[in-house]
Amino acid sequence: MQLNGKKALITGASRGIGRAIADRFIAEGAEVWGLGTKEPADLSDRITKAGGKLHWVTADLGDLSSVDSTIDACVKESGGFDILVNNAGITKDNLAFRMSLEDFQKVIDVNLTAAFLVARTVGRDMIRRKSGSIINMASIVGVHGNGGQANYAASKGGLIAVTKTLAREVASRNVRVNAIAPGFIASDMSDAIPEAAKQAMLETIPLKRSGQPEDIAGAALFLASDGSSYITGQVLAVDGGMFI
Predict the structure, then answer these.
(1) How far is it between the farthest Cα atoms of the chain?
(2) Per the confidence metrics, is the pTM higher than 0.90?
(3) In a domain, 2, yes or no
(4) Is residue 50 part of a domain?
(5) Contact criterion met (CB below 8 Å) for 91 and 149
(6) Which residues on neighbouring strands pair with residue 185, listed in sequence order?
(7) What is the pLDDT of residues 92-133, one digit of tens each?
(8) Cα separations (Å) of 107 from 100, 115, 149, 168?
(9) Residue 39's domain spans which residues?
(10) Among the options 33, 56, 152, 184, which is catalytic?
(11) 152 annotated active-site
């Protein structure tokens, strides 16, 4: 039980990577506040299975005017978080020369600006208590770029820069800030990729398979636990060796 007695806030926790992280954290003893734009259809079952250690908050992080108040309420309800996982994110892909300013800005708002606001509010309390781990969900796209994803790459690259900057600012208060950069992970998003394109991408991965949400959850558990107590400001690529 690596997270026994810990409290965690996980954004984008309704499905995919966020859900896998929430489930893994609860299994390791944490009490989790999950945040998402929609309440999962099986929420009551999830809460029962978690033994009451899952709390749900329905909120739209794309509405930047309400982010501070929403997260502040979560901090007060929980009594303060030991762990924050900034996982919420969206895509609006298109070639750069066809991408609308609205689509560019919306991705930046949700993936970068909202993540910064959430980290700022939760981080203030961590600083006060002189303890905490913040984990930002970046992407290998934020490191290497990807055609058709100028907005997404910018948001994830920016999140990596924010991660490193925050890590420098709060380290003296025993608060750690790291990022995970997933590669090709099986998800609703990847299911929409044509099979031929999917196979071509898999050929670039030395492990010759896509990752699973549980692979990211394992990395998040490590960065949330005391096993990584001397690690901060790092970007952990979980990509099957795609960019060795």
Answers:
(1) 51
(2) yes
(3) no
(4) yes
(5) yes
(6) 211
(7) 999 999 999 999 999 999 999 999 999 999 999 999 999 999
(8) 11, 11, 10, 26
(9) 7-237
(10) 152
(11) yes
